[in-house]
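Q: Could you predict the 3D structure of TetR/AcrR family transcriptional regulator?
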Amino acid sequence: MSGQGRRGTRQRMLDSAVLLLRERGAAGVTVDAVLAHSGAPRGSVYHHFPGGRNELVLGAVRQAGDYIAAVVSESAAGGDVRQMVDRLVVFWKRALVKTDYRAGCPVAAMALDSRDLVPEAGDVVREIFTSWQASLANTLAANGFAAQRAQRLATLVVSAIEGAIILCRAHRDLGPLDDVLVEIAPLLERRD
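A: Sure. Here are the predicted structure tokens for TetR/AcrR family transcriptional regulator:
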């Protein structure tokens, strides 16, 4: 098998693990579920993930974290703080609608049930959330917010959006994300 084929199988497995994590949480990301979803042969797991299920799950949450970090960075690139948060909300609205509200944030899913299932995940999840907050805080600081306030607002934005995603799934409605955007917007316009 060529190197491309091996990367393709590995990537399919990671993509499947991300989707399962988004829909079912860490407990739902089993080797059997990933193999069934990805169509990969059983031997692929230990070939691509010698650490087994935990390595696969950690790889999936890192991939998801990197993807969302890229969305945050791309949204922040324009320098307009309000537009940055608008783009994040639009991203999550699309993701929720596309999956009929079945899939939420894979990093939040991992944060909720990682300690017992994948103990190493706590550090990975913390690292991912910290990077998202730092990116947001840096954008806020570049837009005239004092460093401490930028940090607090970044925490508020991440927390509010993550909470709204959960509420959207529970209610099968995008309203909570709209509410968060309406209430956060004025805070992002005021400078210190």
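Q: Anything worth pointing out?
A: The CA atoms of residues 99 and 127 lie 27 Å apart.
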